[in-house]
Amino acid sequence: MALLSYRNLSVSFGGPLLLDDVGISIAKKERICLLGRNGEGKSTLLRILSGQIEPDKGESERLPDFRVAKLDQDIPGGLEGSVFDVVAEGLGPKALVLRSYNQVSLAWAENPDDSQLADEVDRLQAELDQTDGWSLDHQVASIIDRVGLTQEHPFETLSGGNKSRALLARALVGEPHVLILDEPTNHLDFEGISWLEKFLNKADFAVLFVSHDRSFIRSVATRILELDRGKLSSWTCGYDKFLERKAEILSAEEKQNAVFDKKLAEEEVWIRKGIQARRTRNEGRVRSLFKLREERSNRRELQGRASITGNQAQASGRKVISLKHVDFNWGERCIVRDFSSTIWRGDKIGVVGLNGSGKSTLLQLMLKKLDPTGGTIEHGTKLEVAYFDQHKAVVNENLSVAENVAPNGDTVIINGNSKHILSYLRDFLFLPETARAPARMLSGGERARLLLAKLFLQPANLLVMDEPTNDLDIETIELLEERLLQFEGTLLLVSHDRAFLNNVVTATLALDGTGGITEYAGGCDRWLEEREQERSPVARPKPKAQPAEEKPRKLLNKEKAALLELPGQIEKMEAERDRITALMQEADYYRNAKNDPVGDQSKLEKLENKILENYETWEELEQLAKA
């Protein structure tokens, strides 16, 4: 039985439907990744499922006493008290007495002679006894222990990653059936992301999450939901298999649209023939043409792909940055110790480390915005720097998107050529009406694209980017990867996105947080492997006596029968799979109301899984038979 399901779900905010008569179902222990481009309505769907907003239309069914918890991507301000206090807030009003008891008990421990505090402790203790509040105390302490935090630690002094852990504990303390996560990796470092992957993979609750981190999706998701042009499609497979199947569907859709458009064009030519043709015109054919026109006007086209172009500066000198025996201390803390390196033109350097290890400080040192405590830093010739830091970049909320990018006119210069600002912004997927709207109306992903549009107008041969992928959709991240690989200058990149780093950088600088910096060729995988070995050292196993060789067992009667029947069963299933595949690839398949695309897709996936299982069983039985 599904924990939660919606039917005929529709939502619109005045424009095209964000959710157009869709259905969704979440089963126990599912780990579902919700994908879709920026602005498609992913956050709206999450808010509906968490009960924050009501849909325009839709029917829902849920378990009795259904509980859902949602963890937003931004850490809220104003949270005070200990980790215990913050986590206990997840229990709602029931936790107020418990929190008051803890605060008053702490005050009484510091002032044991205060009779009023003693009386208040007695009163609160009695209330907790009557309401079984002590079980809540155990519940809060248990979940804090699960996320690896200390109850007494002040929340405001935690790192961003540990604050995310505390907020996760607050969401889980109410024992939800479904946990909803919106970009959960944004504030986490590599260690935090690895911890969250392991935590969710062992969870006994269902998880629905939105993420742009492809490595995280591959590790966690058991099902993919994609929101595209108001429609929601389900893919019971991992991320890589989803990409293959999605490409096939888009190819079939493109062919189908081409056939439809050709027929519509032919009918438009027919109806525009002369008077003689009109006298004998088939009225049924005319009605069919009107229907074709209506279908074409209602078709929602696939949104175009972003096109990131930018100004290329003149080439810098061959040597870009030279660091010799550099030291940097922040107070008594050592950030960089005796670091020497040379960065050459065309190098693409990733900078990695845990939160607080000094990654941004190292960038500032390299750019000479900070003076080293010791050692020297030299820049090469003809250096032109463009710096991207979306957390510190300034967007004027009162100006339009276009005015933020081109404040002095309606044109921009790209590699010596003039281009209208609306045309330039269209390359970054901003429609004219969005480009003219105030920047405060943008979503997080659209804001990130705006910052990229501003960045790539700057002529640069040294590009410095600090967490550029936050809030971008996966397709835009992949396009940014292509642009950075084509960039002929030098790149310094800070990111926690493992796939992005591995696809872009040629070398990695890893900070250990105590001043040490190690250089690795390629991406971050080797550094992560070494950290994993450090965290969980494996004792060298003692040599064991070789066990006696096991004699191969004989096939059971039912296994012999299965070995004979499996080839025929597989052949039938493959024939059925091919039939459904051919049916779904027919040009008019999606126009025929008798067809069931969702049902056929589900059948196809089940058949593929069953065929794979049967092949594995067949191979095992054949090996046993040979032995």
Give an overview of the whole structure.
The protein is 43% helix and 19% strand. The protein is of the alpha/beta class and 627 residues long. The chain has a six-stranded mixed sheet with strand order 5-6-7-3-8-9, with helices on both faces. Strands 14-17-18-12-19-20 form a six-stranded mixed sheet, sandwiched between helices. α3 (94-110) packs antiparallel against α4 (115-131) and α5 packs across α6 (160-172). The radius of gyration is 30 Å and the shape is globular. It starts with a strand and ends with a helix.
Which helices and strands appear, and what pairs or packs with what?
Blueprint: E1 4-11, E2 19-26, E3 31-35, H1 42-49, E4 57-62, E5 68-71, H2 83-88, H3 94-110, H4 115-131, H5 134-146, H6 160-172, E6 178-182, H7 190-201, E7 206-210, H8 214-220, E8 223-228, E9 231-235, H9 239-271, H10 275-279, H11 283-298, E10 319-330, E11 333-344, E12 348-352, H12 359-366, E13 374-379, E14 385-389, H13 401-405, E15 411-414, E16 417-420, H14 421-426, H15 432-436, H16 444-455, E17 462-466, H17 474-486, E18 490-494, H18 498-504, E19 507-511, E20 517-521, H19 525-535, H20 557-584, H21 597-626
Parallel strand pairs: 3-7, 3-8, 5-6, 6-7, 12-18, 12-19, 14-17, 17-18
Antiparallel strand pairs: 1-2, 1-4, 8-9, 10-11, 10-13, 15-16, 19-20
Helix pairs in contact: 3-4, 5-6, 9-11, 20-21
Report strand %.
15-25%
Helix/sheet category: alpha/beta
Helical proportion, percent range: 40-55%
Form type: globular
* Annotation field: number of helices: 21
Mean pLDDT: 82
**Strands of the largest sheet, in order across it?**
5-6-7-3-8-9
Major sheet, described briefly?
6 strands, mixed
Distance between the termini: 44 Å
Low-confidence stretches: 539-551
The value of Rg in angstroms is 30 Å
Count of strand segments:
20
